[in-house]
């Protein structure tokens, strides 16, 4: 039976929607899965029942069939790298226009990180581990498979959970709602000091990590900063927009289909173009994706940095920052913000002037709901496309702009 099933037969393996499935029952379900004829890839489309999805993924791996999670398998098999066992459909948050991409990896590349994550986050078989998003998203699927490897219980009930996997945005919403598990594994975006403080005030243990679907785990840590995840070598190398973070580990994907930012070198290192810097303590701070850098009159502005500052302003619930062409500056900053009820955009723009430098300050503002990826991250690429096509409109009055001089 699958290397991923580490629990005792009578223990609960999965508990979604209040329907508990024991390890013995899950093993039987895996054995009963009927895969399509032939030796081609098996598809697990988005929206599939969690138990059925997990059983199908494990059945395909056990029987040597590539499994595509997040979409149908048609037309993908012939493009997958040799040795692919898990193919994960991902739209990303910064890319736009090229459509979804598929990240291809081996099951062993995920299994290799199972014990290190357990050690870093302090997880074991006694835990009840809650995921906060759909299982066709790679970070949530890994969280469930990791729980099964531990022999723990994976599910969606936050009230009974001892650990929760979540993005920072999702963690903030859970804290707003009251009940939160005593330990949280946070990934998918940078965690703000404010969010760390909120968690600490309630004695919630945070384990933060940085990774990417193509790289898996790269860095881990907490409030003191991130350091290389066990088994990972990192290197900061100069790039067009700043120092890029490169990693070499047993956890890397085989490759991608349909584009993406993955680059490799002959020494086994890989990068997705994220920018990083070393702090005075020797930790590593991830600054953001290099393709999200905006060049204004020779100065480089990182979209993630501006977004993080905007989200600290009263009434701003989410923000997306992109660059648009400008004949004098090269580019200028555009901000799209989601606002709480009753919040006036002019007040937000005024507050932003006090927090942002002249280069960082948005020259055009839009207040509207933001598109999101399946994992809940703001889809900056979709915002960029909507701006380019004129779908966003003209923005708010010129009075919100500040002189470019």
From TrEMBL:
<dbReference type="InterPro" id="IPR025110">
    <property type="entry name" value="AMP-bd_C"/>
</dbReference>
<dbReference type="GO" id="GO:0031956">
    <property type="term" value="F:medium-chain fatty acid-CoA ligase activity"/>
</dbReference>
<dbReference type="InterPro" id="IPR045851">
    <property type="entry name" value="AMP-bd_C_sf"/>
</dbReference>
<dbReference type="Pfam" id="PF13193">
    <property type="entry name" value="AMP-binding_C"/>
</dbReference>
<feature type="domain" description="AMP-binding enzyme C-terminal">
    <location>
        <begin position="306"/>
        <end position="377"/>
    </location>
</feature>
<dbReference type="InterPro" id="IPR042099">
    <property type="entry name" value="ANL_N_sf"/>
</dbReference>
<protein>
    <submittedName>
        <fullName>Long-chain fatty acid--CoA ligase</fullName>
    </submittedName>
</protein>
<comment type="similarity">
    <text>Belongs to the ATP-dependent AMP-binding enzyme family.</text>
</comment>
<keyword id="KW-0436">Ligase</keyword>
<dbReference type="GO" id="GO:0006631">
    <property type="term" value="P:fatty acid metabolic process"/>
</dbReference>
């Amino acid at each position: 039976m699958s290397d991923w099933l580490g629990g005792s037969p009578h223990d609960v393996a999965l508990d979604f929607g209040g329907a508990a499935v024991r390890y013995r029952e899950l093993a039987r379900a895996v054995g009963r899965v009927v895969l399509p004829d032939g030796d081609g890839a098996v598809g697990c489309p988005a929206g599939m029942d969690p138990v059925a999805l997990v059983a199908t993924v494990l059945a395909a791996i056990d029987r040597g069939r590539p499994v595509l999670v997040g979409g149908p398998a048609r037309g993908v098999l012939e493009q997958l790298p040799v040795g692919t066992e898990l193919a994960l459909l991902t739209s990303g948050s910064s890319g736009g226009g090229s459509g979804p991409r598929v990240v291809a990896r081996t099951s062993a590349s995920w299994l290799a990180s199972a014990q290190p994550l357990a050690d870093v986050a302090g997880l074991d078989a006694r835990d009840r581990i809650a995921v906060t998003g759909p299982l066709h998203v790679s970070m949530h699927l890994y969280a469930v498979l990791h729980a099964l490897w531990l022999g723990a219980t994976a599910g969606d009930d936050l009230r009974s959970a001892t650990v929760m996997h979540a993005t920072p945005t999702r963690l903030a919403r859970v804290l707003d709602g009251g009940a939160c598990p005593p330990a949280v594994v946070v990934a998918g975006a940078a965690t703000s000091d404010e969010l760390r403080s909120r968690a600490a005030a309630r004695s919630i243990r945070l384990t933060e990590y940085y990774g990417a679907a193509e790289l898996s785990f790269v860095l881990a840590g907490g409030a003191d900063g991130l350091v290389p995840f066990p088994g990972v070598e990192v290197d900061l190398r100069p790039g067009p927009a700043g120092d890029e973070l490169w990693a070499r580990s047993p956890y890397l994907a085989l490759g991608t289909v349909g584009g993406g930012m993955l680059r490799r070198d002959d020494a086994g290192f890989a990068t997705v173009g994220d920018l990083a810097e070393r702090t005075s303590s020797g930790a590593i701070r991830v600054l953001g994706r290099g393709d999200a850098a905006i060049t204004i009159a020779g100065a480089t502005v990182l979209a993630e940095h501006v977004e993080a500052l905007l989200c600290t302003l009263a009434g701003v619930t989410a923000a997306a920052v992109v660059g648009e062409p400008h004949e004098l500056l090269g580019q200028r900053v555009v901000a799209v913000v989601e606002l709480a009820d009753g919040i006036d955009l002019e007040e937000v723009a005024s507050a932003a002037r006090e927090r942002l430098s002249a280069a960082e300050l948005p020259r055009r503002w839009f207040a509207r709901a933001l598109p999101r990826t399946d994992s809940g991250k703001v889809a900056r690429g979709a915002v960029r496309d909507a701006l380019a096509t004129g779908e966003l409109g003209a923005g708010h009055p010129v009075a919100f702009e500040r002189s470019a001089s």
